[in-house]
Specification:
mainly beta; 38 strands; disordered N terminus; disordered C terminus
Amino acid sequence: MMQGIASPGNFFTEASTANLNSIAAGLISPGVLSAQNPQITCILEQGFDIPADHINSISTVPAYPKAAYNAFTGTITWSPGTLTTPIKAGSSVKYAEMIYRIKIDEDILNQTPVGNLYPINLETKLTYEDINNLPHTLDFPIPKVNPILITVEKLLYDSDGNPVTKDNDHLNRLFTIEIKSQILGADGAPVYHRTVKLGGSEQIVLTDFWAGGTYIVNETEVKKYGINGEVGDLGDYKTTYLVDGRMSNAFRVDQGGHDWSIQVKNEERHKGKITVYKAFDPTGSGSYDIPTETPPADAPIFGLKLTYPDGSFEDFTLKAGESRVFSDLPYGDYSVEETDSKGFEFTYSDTDSANGNLTDGRVTLSFLDQEDEVTVINRPADDALTVGVVGRLVWSGGPEADHTALQLPLKRDGSPLFPIPDYTVNPSSGTADSFTYTWSGMQNYSEWGIPYTYTIGIGPALDKYDTSVNDATRTVTYIYNDNPTQSSSSETPTSSADP
């Protein structure tokens, strides 16, 4: 700090005893050697500060009185008193010295540098009285530095690749970015650990790095709706780290090194998901179960189409009970349509009310609503919901008194229905050689959309009568046989039967 009172060209910036001694003979004025009541006032420029944990560590010669620092004004004041410390043993030259540590913060960016140099002090003055008690003021030269500036920038893009800024982000997202040194302290923790929170297109310039170390950048959290909002999922984004345009999340700070540009880029992933279910409502009641078993081979195959936000589409097919999952979809409006209904009526049920309609098969995927479902339901026309089933009981031989209407089971796809559905029989009483059975309002289709096959089965076993069944005509015949040792029963199966 004695540079301010040195002859031009006769000063050193390194405060060593050797340097001070070498210029002692060239001091500007002998009167300075007899300076009285010296006081040094140093005002730090914006962007420079003495760390709080170093304020009490300002070193001075003489040690007392101590220097004082006003952190609010950034001003160092020191009154060293009469100089009594020789610059070296036996020298008549006395000196004073003050050493302190400074740190750089973001306020340095409010300065206008000269080239790449930023002034450390706003001003530094030495005031004193000479041997004639006349006041003097000396201005010290203002040192300048070229600090290493680290710019950290957040880049955010939606799933379509459009940039999202802090101002147009309706989710008001904040990303937490941590920068740690690889050098560990005695406690095992990084000696440098800085956390910043940035929204889309925001950036911050950091200046408080220690030279001679490598630093690692990691994004650790995202919040929606501001600093006190909901924690989001970083897995919703593709994250890329760029250091001076190169893919990396590490950089090194060395004395005299260059500035660094750190960009953390987040791109919304295509995480949209639509599940399309196919159901069949055989009764037309609106109440149906989607079967979980594998559909039969002969179940009808329905044609469907998914239309994407850009107008492109994808055709696909499903049987009742099947589903199709479309994943990794970009966000936007989608529609599901049935293109081949196999002659059945169809309706839609969806889980997206964004358009005010849950029955149009249209859904909107977004970053907040990434998944939707659409169910396409088929049903028979009203006049095809049910079917009438007609069968016959025929008596062949035997006493007339035996020829009465028997209770015959109705079978659906080969399995008897219990209890036996209501039916009518003609004639309704008495004896006859043939009776006609009619079941009305029987369900026409299965939950797979396959028409049921109805047949009738054999009634009670009767002594001296053999039986035969013709599924094609739904006819059960009781044949009189008065020789029980030769009795028999037979069925004539068929693959189909008219109602």
